[in-house]
Design goal:
The protein is mostly helical. The protein has one domain (2-418). It is built from 18 helices and no strands. The radius of gyration is 22 Å and the shape is globular.
């Protein structure tokens, strides 16, 4: 039955409508949720967005593209929260569909794979991304449209690259490469997390276009040259002056004269302590994706002062797991990265789609989180919305693993039947 549905000519459209309806149903009870925390600074008390004649001035702000969408919301409905939530939910729906298309086109690059299987893996990955509780913050916390909108442009940029590579018409290919650059710019000025797009494009090229052959990547040097120049410009003009990739919270800005929200000027935590803490944060993100309970908008996550010291968890703090010394989490992360490298080498030599995809999405997870989970201190060491786009990697690997297990069990059952 499922195979027949997947083989339908209209499956893409049917799935997109199903995903949209499911997301609307899940988030429908949040459409009248009030403004919270940073919503006040960026929307309620932000008089700049109350007049669309400030169009260019709005665009010149640090996250101008997102701020412009808030201005459009205000122009239509003022401070009625319904419109803001509706747009946030619509962006999330679009992102779910884009995740589906990315997985589908990626799997279809392997000629030996049946189309119905490509649709199945892509659909289940997109559904998990769309409905998983960890996405709640990125969707319902209005100001975190910054995260979801930036992710939308990120996915659009990568999809433009995928389609450009397959295009035989030089004009169409040039336009699609231009789309990669345009969406990179729009993504970055929605939120700076999009800065890693060139790395993901390069990795995708290496894994799925050239199947591990580094030389083939050099065919697209002009594109990488433009993306590299933009990367340098973004870092020099925005990231460095802002002190890093910190969230533009009202509290952090109020303290900025003595303790910046991000960067090496942060006095509450050193770069080394922040790095140690992020070892535990990254493992916690994985646990949260696996078991989404005890979610929190504002974690009181324990700071790690030493690599071998167990961080002190404040009384009353509720977390999913006991927080170990950072060295334990470091070992876990290194094992995962090691598995990613092993799968890449094996996948390249065997031409294995599963191994290459699993490896790619392991590195996807770490690369996308790298701006906020490195050694550059940010006052808020953990936020669930930061794992929004990175979670695609976890869901893709999860679906591949479950599908592999069921496939193995079916083969075993079939083999026993023959015996």
């Amino acid at each position: 039955m499922m195979e027949r549905i997947l083989q339908s000519r209209h499956f893409h459209l049917m799935f997109s409508l199903f995903l949209a309806l499911l997301v609307l149903l899940i988030y429908s009870n949040t459409f009248y949720a009030s403004f919270h925390f940073d919503d006040a600074m960026h929307i309620v008390e932000n008089y700049l967005i109350r007049d669309l004649s400030n169009f260019f001035e709005i665009l010149r702000t640090q996250r101008g593209v997102t701020m412009l969408t808030f201005a459009l919301n205000y122009a239509v409905g003022g401070l009625n929260v319904f419109g803001y939530h509706l747009v946030n939910t619509a962006i999330h729906i679009v992102n779910g569909i884009l995740v589906y298309l990315l997985l589908y086109y990626t799997i279809k690059r392997f000629e030996t794979v049946e189309e119905w299987w490509a649709k199945k893996v892509a659909a289940f990955t997109a559904l998990l991304f769309a409905v998983h509780p960890v996405q709640t913050q990125a969707v319902t916390y209005i100001v975190q449209r910054m995260e979801s909108l930036s992710s939308m442009f990120y996915l659009l940029g990568l999809l433009c690259f995928v389609k450009a590579v397959d295009s035989k018409a030089s004009t169409k290919r040039a336009l699609l490469y231009g789309g990669v650059v345009l969406f990179y710019i729009l993504g970055f000025y929605s939120k700076e997390i999009a800065v890693t797009l060139p790395a993901i494009v390069f990795l995708y090229d290496l894994y799925f276009i050239n199947r591990g052959n580094v030389k083939g990547v050099f065919q697209r040097l002009p594109l990488y040259g433009v993306l590299s120049l933009l990367l340098i410009y973004f870092v020099v003009s925005t990231v460095v002056p802002a002190g890093g990739f910190g969230d533009l919270s009202k509290e952090a800005q109020a303290l900025s004269y003595r303790d910046p929200s991000a960067g090496f000027g942060v006095k509450s935590i050193t770069p080394l302590e922040y790095l140690y803490t992020q070892f535990n944060v990254l493992v916690y993100y994985i646990v949260l994706l696996l078991v989404p309970v005890n979610q929190n908008l504002d974690y009181d996550f324990p700071i790690s002062r030493g690599l071998f010291e167990t961080p002190v968890v404040k009384e009353g703090t509720v977390l999913n797991i006991p927080i170990p010394p950072p060295v334990v989490s470091l070992v876990i992360l290194l094992v995962i990265i090691g598995i990613g490298l092993y799968l890449f080498l094996k996948g390249r030599s065997e031409g294995s789609l599963r191994k290459l995809m699993a490896s790619f999405f392991i590195f996807w997870f770490f690369i996308i989180l790298s701006p906020t989970s490195s050694f550059v201190p940010i006052i808020d060491v953990i936020f669930e919305h930061r794992v929004y786009l990175a979670s695609v990697g976890f869901f893709a690997i999860f679906v591949l693993c479950i599908d592999g297990i069921f496939g193995y069990m079916a083969q075993k059952k079939e083999h026993k039947g023959i015996e």
